């Protein structure tokens, strides 16, 4: 037989407040960048201490996105691909079909770590996922992202507002890499890009998102 314990002023309410809600994972398909950016901003602006953290997995229609402090000289020849000013950190990058984008909407005050640790945790989750495909990758402290040798396979760009992160990662799976030659990727002239398919891994973006999800939740401290 179950029975309720008498309420202790201040204690039960505090326990409820400190118990983190389970994170939510959303798969959004192929989306234009501007609409999703507006949704991320709205979510971050309206969330409360009780709002569950979320991971959004999706692909974008072709677009160059320029970081908050991005320099115009790194956009070389965009031609038919639009350039959108974003409010994340970092320089210019490219998004397009065949690239897995993961937006990380986390209350950093609740999980108890800062932006540098968040970057490291995301990079480690990507490295773990690639290792599962037999791809040896690593991060670089001086240049955020994930690299296979001298080639970059994943980019990161984040923003923190009111203690909560948004934006996230872009992992090249099976995409047209040519648009990266129209920019200095992440502000680095001549930086070569690579992708999972070219390195012997799966070409299925959905599969990669399913493989990355538990590793990302674990590294972020959000695993149930």
List keywords for this structure.
single chain, 224 residues, alpha+beta, BirA Bifunctional Protein, domain 2, three-stranded mixed β-sheet, disordered N terminus
The tally of strands reads: 10
> How big a fraction of the residues is strand?
25-35%
Count of folded domains: 1
Strand order of the largest sheet: 1-2-6-10-9-8-7
CATH fold field value = BirA Bifunctional Protein, domain 2
Q: Identify the CATH class.
A: Alpha Beta
Helix % is 25-40%
* Largest sheet composition: 7 strands, mixed
Task: Report the end-to-end length measured between terminal Cα atoms.
Answer: 28 Å
Mean pLDDT: 92
Counting DSSP H or I runs of 4 or more residues, the number of helices is: 5
Order of helices and strands: HEHEEEEEHHEEEEH
Report on the architecture of this protein.
The protein is α+β, with helices and mostly antiparallel strands. The chain has one domain (22-219): Bira Bifunctional Protein, Domain 2 (BirA Bifunctional Protein, domain 2, 2-Layer Sandwich), CATH 3.30.930.10. It is 26% helix and 25% strand. The chain is built from 5 helices and 10 strands, in the order H-E-H-E-E-E-E-E-H-H-E-E-E-E-H. The chain has helices spanning 11-18, 33-46, 108-111, 115-131, 205-219, and strands at 24-31, 54-60, 63-66, 83-85, 93-95, 99-105, 138-139, 146-148, 151-161, 164-172. A 7-stranded mixed sheet has the order 1-2-6-10-9-8-7, with helices on both faces. Helix 4 packs across helix 5. Residues 1-17 have low confidence and may be disordered.
């Amino acid at each position: 037989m179950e029975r309720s314990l008498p309420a202790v002023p201040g204690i039960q309410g505090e326990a409820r407040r400190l118990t983190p809600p389970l994170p939510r994972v959303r798969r959004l398909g192929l989306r234009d960048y501007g609409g999703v950016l507006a949704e991320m901003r709205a979510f971050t602006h309206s969330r409360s201490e009780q709002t569950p953290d979320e991971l959004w997995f999706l692909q974008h229609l072709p677009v160059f996105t320029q970081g908050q402090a991005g320099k115009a000289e790194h956009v070389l020849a965009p031609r038919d691909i639009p350039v959108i000013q974003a409010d994340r950190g970092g320089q210019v990058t490219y998004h397009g079909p065949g690239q897995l984008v993961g937006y990380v909407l986390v209350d950093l005050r609740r999980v108890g770590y800062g932006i540098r640790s968040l970057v490291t945790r995301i990079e480690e989750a990507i490295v773990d996922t690639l290792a599962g495909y037999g791809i040896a990758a690593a991060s670089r402290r001086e240049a955020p992202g994930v690299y296979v040798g001298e080639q970059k396979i994943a980019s990161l760009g984040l923003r923190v507002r009111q203690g909560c992160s948004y934006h996230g990662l872009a992992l090249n799976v099976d995409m047209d890499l040519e648009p990266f030659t129209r920019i200095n990727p992440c502000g680095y002239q001549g930086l070569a890009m690579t992708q999972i398919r070219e390195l012997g891994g799966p070409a299925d973006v959905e599969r990669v998102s399913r493989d990355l999800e538990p590793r990302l939740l674990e590294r972020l401290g959000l695993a149930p």
